[in-house]
Amino acid sequence: MKRTLLVAGAAVVLVAGALVAYGRFKPSSVAARADPAVAVAVALGALERSEGHALSADQVSAILPLLRVLRDTDPNDAEPSRALARAIMNLLTPEQRAEIERLREEARRRQQERGPGPAAPGGAPGAGPGLFASQRTAVSSDRRAELRRRVLSRLITRLEQR
To answer: Which domain holds residue 65?
Structure first.
């Protein structure tokens, strides 16, 4: 009897440990991954600010309806968002896509030069995400959706005013 209880207790501990490990190390959820809507909005905004790579009037008229649909798409619907972002990127010239890639590489290089950011609330410098990481993740899902809507709305307004 003791042996059975001991084995059952060990199994429960192992299963609980596995569940905790899975929760900690599982792949990030769709909401936590980079949002294709925000990525395409940032790319288009960068093109608009660059010299010689701004969108043409024809591109703007083709992209605006797609941006409006993208803005109104549920951020949790990853596949429609990716498809719309791809459709928008396909409307760009090869030179514009190359400029976006150049700007992304430049941003990555600057980020690497800066190194790791400041410590998260609840943790010491370099100590990792701190005690409240799960609370920040839960709140940040709504914040990400709001950021997405705001970024796309601003870009749409800017392109409409051209």
So the answer is: 31-110+139-162
Tell whether 88 is covered by a domain: yes
> Considering the domain boundaries, does residue 48 fall inside one?
yes
pLDDT (0 to 100) of residue 3: 64
Query: Contact 9/53 with Cβ under 8 angstroms?
Result: no
Assess if residue 121 is contained within a domain.
no
**pLDDT confidence bin for 131, thresholds 50/70/90:** very low
For the entire predicted model, the pTM comes to: 0.65
Q: Is 87 within 8 Å of 72 (Cβ atoms)?
A: no
Query: Among 65, 48, 144, 152, which residue's Cα sits nearest to residue 100?
Result: 48
Number of domains in the chain: 1
Question: Is position 3 within any domain?
Answer: no
Per residue in 62-107, pLDDT (tens digit) is 999 999 999 999 998 899 999 999 999 999 999 999 999 999 999 9
Q: Report residue 23 as tokens.
A: 């929760």
**CA-based nearest residue to 147, from 34, 30, 29:** 34
